[in-house]
Amino acid sequence: MTVAERDLALLTEAARAAGEVAMRYWKNAPKAWDKADSSPVTEADLACNDLIMGILRRARPDYGWLSEETPDDTTRLRTEHQFIVDPIDGTRAFIAGEKHFSHSLAVAHNGKITAAVVYLPALDKLYTATEFGPALRDGQPITCSRKSLADQPNILTSKTALDPQNWPNGVPQFQRSFRASLAYRLCLVADGSFDGMITFMDAWEWDIAAGSLIAARAGAKVTDRDGLALDFNAPAAQSAGTFACAPLLHDDLISLLQ
């Protein structure tokens, strides 16, 4: 078993354990408040974070740690491997009692994601991948769609992405859909449910780390909004947007931005 495969098994264990914790709070009026950046957080986010961190760091004490719900410690920049975690991605959906929230867990090595898990406990749906293995949903291989912009693709994105100022060569025509969890959006591209997902806004690494590998291993093309490869464990822990699409569709959209 490779290092990435061992890491994947550990991530899966932690994600499923977090799912049990999250489901005890879901639809049970968890305490919630806004953080300094106005994003919501709940007692469930913190409980899941503590559980995941305990499982992962006990097993890999030499790995760095980056999580939405833990103050950033720059010592991660000097480690060879890092855990990148969003304890609950889609907190607004979680608070609203919707099913499309997820636990997003990944390992990075030299700036690249090597193992990834996205688990949706309310749906009991598990997406996984390693750097050289297939993308899987509940243990079965998945592949992205093969559509281009001419094929009337269905793209997961927010309404703000259709602002003409984002598209200097004209706003492309496509069907628009949305899911609260950015990690889940990437997985829905991976399994072919949607043809792409795009966000122009800077994306936190914990939102996209796991899903980006799963989408890429399913055959999708995944870059930032400039068409450049994603790089992880950066000091700012953000990417310049995220485009993850069927390969032809990705190239069509990026060409409209140049």
TrEMBL record:
<dbReference type="GO" id="GO:0046854">
    <property type="term" value="P:phosphatidylinositol phosphate biosynthetic process"/>
</dbReference>
<feature type="binding site">
    <location>
        <position position="207"/>
    </location>
    <ligand>
        <name>Mg(2+)</name>
    </ligand>
</feature>
<dbReference type="GO" id="GO:0046872">
    <property type="term" value="F:metal ion binding"/>
</dbReference>
<dbReference type="InterPro" id="IPR020550">
    <property type="entry name" value="Inositol_monophosphatase_CS"/>
</dbReference>
<feature type="binding site">
    <location>
        <position position="86"/>
    </location>
    <ligand>
        <name>Mg(2+)</name>
    </ligand>
</feature>
<dbReference type="InterPro" id="IPR000760">
    <property type="entry name" value="Inositol_monophosphatase-like"/>
</dbReference>
<keyword id="KW-0479">Metal-binding</keyword>
<comment type="similarity">
    <text>Belongs to the inositol monophosphatase superfamily.</text>
</comment>
<dbReference type="GO" id="GO:0006020">
    <property type="term" value="P:inositol metabolic process"/>
</dbReference>
<dbReference type="Pfam" id="PF00459">
    <property type="entry name" value="Inositol_P"/>
</dbReference>
<keyword id="KW-0460">Magnesium</keyword>
<feature type="binding site">
    <location>
        <position position="89"/>
    </location>
    <ligand>
        <name>Mg(2+)</name>
    </ligand>
</feature>
<feature type="binding site">
    <location>
        <position position="88"/>
    </location>
    <ligand>
        <name>Mg(2+)</name>
    </ligand>
</feature>
<protein>
    <submittedName>
        <fullName>3'(2'),5'-bisphosphate nucleotidase CysQ</fullName>
    </submittedName>
</protein>
<dbReference type="GO" id="GO:0008934">
    <property type="term" value="F:inositol monophosphate 1-phosphatase activity"/>
</dbReference>
<feature type="binding site">
    <location>
        <position position="68"/>
    </location>
    <ligand>
        <name>Mg(2+)</name>
    </ligand>
</feature>
<dbReference type="GO" id="GO:0007165">
    <property type="term" value="P:signal transduction"/>
</dbReference>
